[in-house]
Amino acid sequence: MNERPNLLYLHSDQHSPFVMGAYGDPLVQTPNLDQLAQDGVTLDGCYCPSPICVPSRMSSLTGRYPHENRVWTNSHILDSAIPTLAHAMGAGGYRPALVGRMHAVGPDQLHGYAERLVGDHGPNQPGGRGADHGDLSGTAGPARVSLTKSGPGQSAYQVHDEDVTAAAVHWLDRYGVRHRAGQESTPFSLSVGFMLPHQPFVARQQDYALYEGRMTMPRTPEPFSNDLHPHIRAWREGCGIVDVPEDEILRARTAYWALVTCMDRLIGQILEALRANGLEDNTLVVYTSDHGEQVGEHGLWWKQTFYEDSVRVPAILKWPGRLSPNVRSDRVCSGLDLNATMLDALGCPPLPQSRGRSLLPLLQSPKTAPWEDIAFSEFCLDGAGAGGPTGEHGIVQRMVRRGDWKLNYYDTQPSQLFHLAEDPRELNDRIADPHCATIRNELLALVLDGWDPALVRQEMARHRADLPILRGWAKHVQPADTCRWNLRPEMDYLDTGGQ
Question: Is the pLDDT of residue 338 over 90?
Answer without folding.
Answer: yes
